[in-house]
Amino acid sequence: MNKSRLIGALCAAVFSFIALPSHAALVSVLGGQAYYDDQLDISWTANANINSSGTWDNQMAWAAGLDIDGVTGWRLPSMDVNGDNVINYCSTVETQAQCKDNEYGHLFNYGAGTVHGSGITDDSPGPFSNIQSFNYWSSTEYGSTFAWYIIFNGGSQGAQNRSFNNFAWAVHAGNVGAVPVPAAVWLFGSGLLGLIGVAKHKKAA
After folding, report:
1. How far apart are CA 141 and CA 56, in angstroms?
2. What percent of the chain stands above pLDDT 70?
3. pLDDT of residue 21
4. CA 116, 119, 124, 126 torsion: positive or negative?
5. Cα–Cα distance between 141 and 148 in angstroms, integer?
6. Where are the domains of the chain?
7. What is the tens place of the pLDDT at every residue in 156-167?
8. For the chain, which terminal residue's Cβ has fewer other Cβ atoms within 10 angstroms, N or C?
9. Rounded to whole angstroms, how far apart are CA atoms 132 and 117?
10. C-alpha pair distances (Å), 20 with each of 34, 111, 173
């Protein structure tokens, strides 16, 4: 294999590490401990019931302190991503674009796909485990003492006093399985330097 082909192969290898999925999918990351949702550009923990039930404050603190193989920065899903205080229920009259404002609602109604009704439920968990059929806290507050929740048995959504014990599902912004760009650049640069060194060595010989 000549030098140009080696460089081409190295480029392909590097970009395969940092490239994101180009189609609707739930991509296994962190050794199967999470799934990247390429529709919402977030990662969900594979286990939907790591922390069992708890109050809203306790579940928020748990998610914020979660560490999976050194990956921190987890949170509870938002049901009002754009912060306009409007909760989209993701019913059939709403578009998928509108539904993406509600991370729980989108997962329940669309999964990581584009077809309404093909989502993730307690009876149809897809690749996830331990999805409970009861209330799941979101990070979205309602007033000073309530917060929004979803039920994965039927998809009902509402607000409840934060002192109630509900389940929680942790998510993380972006693809937690992607190689950080600085690391990928370092790999690419190291590979190029190595190829240059080999080429110079051959030329000297």
Report:
1. 10
2. 75
3. 44
4. positive
5. 6
6. 1-20+181-205, 23-177
7. 999 999 999 999
8. C
9. 19
10. 15, 18, 14
